[in-house]
Amino acid sequence: MTRLLVFGLLAGLLASVVTFGVARLVGEPALDAAIALEVADSHAHAADTPNHPDAVGMSRRLQAGPGLFVGLAAIGAALGGILAISFAVARGRFLHGSTRATVGWITALGFAAVIVVPMLKFPGNPPAVGNSETIGARTLAYFAFLALSLATLGFAVSAVKGVPSRHRKMLIGAAIYAGVMTGAAIVLPSFHEVDPAFPGDVLWQFRASTLAVQATLWASTAIVFCWLVGRYGQSV
């Protein structure tokens, strides 16, 4: 187990290097465009706000360079560790295929439950989008939905463990998950705070780049972890 955990941490760290390149290539341009709109809007309102203090914080160069890399490395290491633990638990209990198949299923299900489904209900918004007065409610609703997504995924996997047919197992598990999460999406509040005047191309570029960066991190971590287990994990 210790060796698997080391493999997972190392896989996440190596994956963060690849993800950093993708984030710089597709993520930062979208973020810069959104920030430019936010700055222009703040300047437009500055004349109406005497003695408005200047924002103090990390420079964009630092954010887009070392800050971004450190953040991705931390997330990658955590993701790799969780993948290693999930692999150790699922292998031989819930999943009985090869290492590649087991890691592939864990990664696909986790990516769907942690990234894709919450994003469908609460899509990411760039700077200059969103009401500051609702940030608490939005954050609470998002994490409640995320926690329910993970809990429902765990329940669905456990519920179909004894089903002999793989086809029926997939259908039943998907039905359980989809039913619960659809109901949750209806019950939980929605927040439609995008100004109609906000450029649609900037909004969707930001959301698409966010998904691309996350997909790169998850896929790269899974690929490196599979390679490490196959190359050095014969005894685990």
Automatic annotation (TrEMBL):
InterPro entries per record: CbtA_put (IPR012666)
User: Does this entry carry the keyword Transmembrane?
Assistant: yes
One Pfam match, given by its short name, reads CbtA
Q: Which UniProt keywords are listed?
A: Membrane, Plasmid, Transmembrane, Transmembrane helix
Q: Which domain of life is it from?
A: Bacteria
Spell out where the chain crosses the membrane.
68-90, 102-120, 140-159, 171-191, 211-230
The molecule here is called Putative cobalt transporter subunit (CbtA)
Q: Organism source for this protein?
A: Antarctobacter heliothermus
